[in-house]
Write a structure and sequence with these properties.
The structure is a homodimer.
Chain A lengths: L6 H14 L12 H8 L3 H13 L4 E3 L3 E3 L3 H6 L15 E3 L8 E12 L5 H4 L6 E11 L2 E11 L8 H5 L5 H9 L3 E12 L2 H7 L6 E11 L3 E10 L4 E7 L1
Antiparallel strand pairs in A: 1-2, 3-10, 4-5, 5-6, 6-9, 7-8, 8-9
Helix pairs in contact in A: 1-3, 2-3
Chain A binds a DNA duplex through helix 3.
DNA sequence: TTCGATTTGTTCGTATGTATT
DNA sequence: TAATACATACGAACAAATCGA
């Protein structure tokens, strides 16, 4: 009774598995649609249907005349390739109230490798409690003003060899680092927001009265194939900035 | 040198304009793809490409064997048609911390028609300051517990004849009301979030200490064709609930 | 219940245009 | 210029879901 899924879906899943396995790193094109069609023994339109889905899921981008690629986080952040860049801010939602989109500057405050995973974090990342973790604390500024204090938790098993120098000395964003050095292309995040009294560190960093309201953001970032790779707790000062979200 | 846009885009825009103009109200199918192809003088695949875009933008839904429709907000909220419903909560993001998705209950606290539009609200809705507005205040509960206090501002010109009885006596959600009675199908919202000290009414409703942190959400809802139809200011108690957002 | 008409879903194939190298 | 790759558009055939006779 169970009808098998359509061909384009099997091709999509096959491609997604290949991407999750690290074939086709960012910058190197996939086989052309004609070659993929030959490989899968189907029409070119069927391959296009499968790729369409992965493009919609932000796992791939097409470039006419060039090929199909895993999107490069930092390249997207740099290029103003079609109008004011949207992708650069896809995962950074704190903006000045006037809506300006200044890029944030990041200062590394702390970095530790080998901490055991706190019990409450483990289930979010699908790992064992006390698994070895990498921990970092960042201060984000916009236009020189401190707006967010981030704590990052990464399973060390997913980021072998990552140390403070490698983390601090990256070229672009942290997600660009995850992608270029470790092949983890973040394409989805879940965020849970609360309004909470400012913790001590946040109050100090933002020059806030203790207990003043701040926005607490708990984010889990997922790479291609729905693999959680990072948990982040941010506290943001929303006196002159806000968290922006558009649902379409 | 300016190449004209592809045929499918012109068809998409034409369909979108028809939807925004109120043809094909929710529940009545569009002409079949074959008929549309004949009308536009193109291949059926080209029509499908155009409809694909509108489906992706949540302006249309397809039903195999039945036709293509403007999605019905409340029908989506009622039917568990494929697994746990996601669309019902597409525009309601407050959830218990455990992730349960109980439907909120709404209590109407206040309703006024004819108030002049506050100057700061007018630009968000693209209308003139002091334009006549409809104002409503709602209390949202989840599992009996008050979690959000909403203030709604609607341009009266877009909701002719809407009075307290019509507003309070609706069948389903407010967005369902907008759609069924006035033809405004909300498909997109912009939300701006801040952590703020609880205003007096919110503190009372939530049994909070005055000045305790609450989440303030400013939402503008857009109907098909990017027409703003509602501004909403919500204050949410996030002690046991949170604002959930997934970016994909 | 069966059947046929209608409508969308899937898959195939082809031709031509446009961008890149 | 030529080769390659994606983008657009056309057309056809059959499958699957729906609905009413």
């Amino acid at each position: 009774m169970n009808a098998e899924p359509p061909l384009w879906r099997m091709i999509r899943d096959s491609l997604e598995a290949a991407l999750a396995a690290g074939e086709y790193p960012a910058g190197t094109p996939l086989p052309s649609e004609a070659k993929l069609a030959a490989r899968f023994g189907c029409a070119i339109g069927t391959v296009r249907r499968a790729v369409d889905e992965l493009v919609a899921a932000r796992a791939l981008v097409r470039r006419q005349g060039r090929g199909t690629f895993v999107p490069d986080h930092d390249a997207m952040a740099r290029l103003p390739h079609d109008g004011p860049d949207r992708t650069a801010f896809y995962f950074f939602h704190i903006r000045p109230e006037d809506g300006a989109r200044l890029p944030p500057e990041t200062e590394l405050l702390d970095f530790r490798a080998g901490l055991p995973c706190p019990a409450w974090i483990a289930p979010h990342l699908g790992i064992a409690a006390r698994a070895p973790m990498i921990f970092a604390r960042n201060l984000q500024r916009i236009g020189g003003r401190a707006v967010a204090l981030d704590e990052l938790w990464l399973p060390r098993a997913l980021f072998p060899g990552l140390d403070r120098a490698g983390f601090a000395g990256r070229d672009g964003t942290v997600y660009g680092l995850y992608q270029k050095r470790f092949g983890h292309s973040v394409i989805r995040t879940d965020e849970r927001l609360k309004a909470v009294p400012a913790p001590a560190e946040a109050a100090t960093a933002f020059d806030l009265a203790p207990g003043a309201p701040v926005l607490r953001i708990l984010r889990v970032a997922y790479a291609i194939g729905d693999r959680p790779v990072e948990l982040r707790i941010s506290h943001a000062d929303t006196r002159e900035h806000e968290y922006f979200n558009t649902l379409a």
